[in-house]
Amino acid sequence: MTQLIPQTGNIPRPFASIVSQPYWDACARGELMFQRCAACNGITHTPAVMCAHCSARDLAWERAAGTGAVYSWTTVWRPQTPDFTVPYTAVVIDMDEGWQMLSNLIGCEHDAATIGMRVAVEFHPITDGVMLPYFRPVA
């Protein structure tokens, strides 16, 4: 068995755009953010200029609770580049506010992921001080 850990290598880092900068700034503060449309109340993730539901341009940032449940996952043993530490388990999380996000599972064995597993976000640094959101199982 192999314990899943945050990436520690020189993995590709995200580059913030004008649209995504508030998201990455929040991650640096240890906060997970999403956008909600004032016109239709729809949630948009990843950061966008317009609502994915109604195309309105009236999106506001909200802080997520940072909790959710595993919707799906896959464990990677052959990464795209050798910079990644394997194994890692990519997870799609159903966030409690009603949106999904892709991240990595940490803090458990590589074969522990199950659909519906409750998880909570925690942030870990990579190069240049960028903080990435990872998810850890919670009781």
From TrEMBL:
InterPro entries: ChsH2_C, ChsH2_Znr, NA-bd_OB-fold, Thioester_dehydratase-like
Membrane-traversing stretches: none
Domain ChsH2 C-terminal OB-fold: 61-124
Pfam families assigned to the protein according to its UniProt record, in alphabetical order: OB_ChsH2_C, zf-ChsH2
Protein name: Unannotated protein
PANTHER family: BLR3430 PROTEIN (PTHR34075)
ChsH2 rubredoxin-like zinc ribbon domain span: 24-59
Lineage: unclassified sequences, metagenomes, ecological metagenomes
